[in-house]
Amino acid sequence: MTQTSTPIHPKKSSKKEAAEQLLEPEENFYKALKPKLDELYKEPSEETITKILAYAKKR
Amino acid sequence: MGLIKHTPMRLQQVSDQDLVKLYIGGDESVIEELLRRHKSKIFTSIYLLVKDQYLAEDIFQDAFIKVINTLRSGRYNEEGKFLPWVMRIAHNLVIDYFRKEKRTPTITSADGTDVLNLIQIHEESAEERILREQTHADLRKMIHFLPDEQKEVLIMRHYADLSFKEIAELTDVSINTALGRMRYALSNLRKMMNIKENVKEISVGRN
């Protein structure tokens, strides 16, 4: 027998929760906008990460 | 404090709170996992507020140095969530920066020019890449045109993935106010996009 379970996706569920609190036209607009907003994600440089890690390891 | 045993392979399944406990307990390597999880959310949030790559790098680094110092000093409140806590630190550093520089992020622009130009991305040519980069730049400008409080909520909600409750606590307002600001932010973004579309149509009509 196949067991089923509900996957837990904290990020997705919290986004959904927020969307439910917006009015429908706002929610629809936000949904359409999300992919474009997601394209703006940026990463810090490797140099910055290396400095932080080096600092974290100094006691 | 009871230490949690882990192997490097399992680290990805450990909660933020347990990673923090591991760090406080002397396992410095877990900071790498915390950074891996949250660096993009935190850095993008900072970058969109300050609009400068180098400054964002500095503030991001300073925020994590504060995080590390606080964890080492034993002043971290374990009841709070890690990401909202780091976002609060980063947010305060951004505010400090603008105070020191006596600069404020650009406030709302009424004209809404130079805004979004929606394009579909498929097999990308050089021309399309330029257009996509322009689209990103336009969207960043639109976000920047939003009033500060609306911009903050949009960034914290979308990029930092904070709940409205967490945003409300961080910005010292009610949940309804935070939600209202998000609504205004979306409404203003839509207006700017409509203006951009109208400008484009007029421009095409003239040619």
Q: What is the number of helical segments of chain B per DSSP (H or I, 4+ residues)? A: 8
Order of helices and strands of chain A: HHH
Structural class of chain B: mainly alpha
Task: Give the CA-based shape of chain A.
Answer: elongated
CATH superfamily of the largest domain in chain B: RNA polymerase sigma factor, region 2, helix turn helix motif
The radius of gyration over CA of chain A amounts to 19 Å
Q: Average the pLDDT over all residues of chain B and give the rounded result.
A: 82
Largest sheet of chain A: none
Helix content of chain B: 55-70%
Tell me the number of structural domains of chain B.
Answer: 2
Largest sheet of chain B: none
Reading the helices and strands of chain B in chain order gives: HHHHHHHH
Number of helices of chain A: 3
Provide the number of structural domains of chain A: 1
Strand content of chain A: under 5%
Low-confidence stretches of chain A: 1-13
What does the oligomeric state look like here? heterodimer
Overview of the molecule:
The complex is a heterodimer of chains A (59) and B (207). Chain A is an all-alpha fold and 59 residues long. Chain A has one domain (11-57). Chain A contains three helices and no strands. Chain A starts with 9 loop residues before the first helix and ends with a helix. Mean pLDDT of chain A is 75; it is low at 1-13. The longest helix of chain B has 32 residues, at 175-206. In chain B, 69% of the residues lie in helices and 0% in strands. Chain B starts with 15 loop residues before the first helix and ends with a helix.
Brief sketch in words of this structure:
The complex is a heterodimer of chains A (59) and B (207). By secondary structure, chain A is an all-alpha fold. In chain A, 66% of the residues lie in helices and 0% in strands.
Question: What keywords describe this structure?
Answer:
heterodimer, A: 59 residues, mainly alpha, elongated, disordered N terminus, B: 207 residues, Rna Polymerase Sigma Factor, Chain: A, Arc Repressor Mutant, subunit A, 8 helices, 69% helix, 0% strand
